[in-house]
Amino acid sequence: MSEKAEIKAGEIIARMDRIPIWGLSYIFIGILGIGFLFTFYDIFDINVSFIQTAVTIFHVSSPSSPQIPLLLGPAVLLNLIGYVIGSLVLSPVSDIIGRRRMLMITMIITGLGSLYNTFVNDYLNFVMARTITGIGVGADLAIVNTYIGEVAPTNGRAKYTSLVFLFSTLGATLGIWLGLLLTTPPAPFPLGLPFALGLSGFFAVNGWRVMYGIGALLALVGLLLRFSLPESPRWLISRNRISEAEKIVNMMEDKATKKLKQLPSLPKVITPYLSEMLSYADTLKTIFSNSQYVKRFVILFTMWLFGYMTVYTLAAGLTSVLASLGYPPPEAGIIAAMGSIGFILVPLTTFAVGDRLERKVWTAISVIFTFLGGLLIALAGTNVVVSFIGSIILFYGFNLWVPISYAWTAESFPTRARSTGFALCDGIGHVGGGIGLIIIASFISSLLSSGVTTGLAVEVFVIIGVFQLISTLIAISSGHKTANKRLDEISP
């Protein structure tokens, strides 16, 4: 590669790094956000609706049967194994063929999986459909976060990751509340929804199918919108497509100049890595032949592994866990649904102040709220107001560290292997979600023989929180600093 090309590439990256605001159209955040809305809708739509699914086609005897969490565990685990497959097989392809192309491919796969779920009639096909959907979701989350990290300003990577994550909370909220509306019987508020449709007629047995059909439609919308996304300039430069990258950076500079009148001076030019040919083996070698990247992989992977044990137990299984602890399904569903308020507060918090603290500090703040919210639910008894407050705090806690850690993981690997590095850490780490739910389901089932008590509920929520505590201790004790640093300084 000529020295002239390397200098030119470094200057383009320096020009990009000096832009202190979002340099692309905000429409592109919305486009990425619509995709995230669907992926998190898919993660959370099973939370409430799975009870109806189990009763309808798995022939479970009762909506409160402890068998339901036991069936839910493998379904979530296989969905997350699909997530791992998508992350490890598809996400690295974006390091080779580009972020934009793969973002369209992943949305197609995710939508087809959700459409398959709409028409299944047995447990085997249900979990197969969830696995296919997981393949698309796993790759999509890795690539979106990589893309945001590469185009966001140096002082705002967590901020703009959080802005896209706001759409995630809307998707999760939609998934939970639609499940409550379409799959549960009506009950007087606050013990349920008075106008819920799941008691009789079409929705009594097919409400859950409608949920997955809506998911497929959302995926189609997300796919069509993504055709207008520009490619990541950093990826183009890494592939020696310098003129294409410069056109996009010119556009970003023009847009920023209209708002700021004058851009800051250029930072130091850092010569980037350029390669016209790159294989998956090359991206893996980039990470595992470098002791710094290996250390980061170990820290971030174990952080995600234990953290997701808590996240997915609550995100996919809170309604089923509460029903097993004796809550009527409509009440269990609405307690989980109220938690969406806390979820929405997460990106509002991290958008405002996410870049002011080092990434790992947020894991410690997050776990405190998780324990507080879980204990409030466990001790609330029949006081639904306290249960609602506990659910809001709980959802705020177990999600608060996630968007910040998305930014942290993407920052921790170089452009030529960024999507691969994210996929290895976050993708494999998702296995923890299924493992955690199976452990909790088995724990509840083994203890129910002695009767449901407040003490049992406390034990359940403490065990759920302990996984996240382990994740936090790993991050705090060993995590590296990345906030407000240039990407090529963090990960050359």
UniProtKB/TrEMBL annotation:
Main localization of the protein described in the UniProt heading: membrane
Transmembrane segments: 21-41, 68-90, 102-120, 126-148, 160-182, 210-229, 297-322, 334-354, 361-380, 386-409, 421-444, 456-476
Domain of life: Archaea
Occurrences of domain Major facilitator superfamily (MFS) profile (ranges): 28-483
Protein localization: Membrane
Cross-referenced PANTHER family: SYNAPTIC VESICLE GLYCOPROTEIN 2
Name of the protein this chain belongs to: Sugar-related transporter
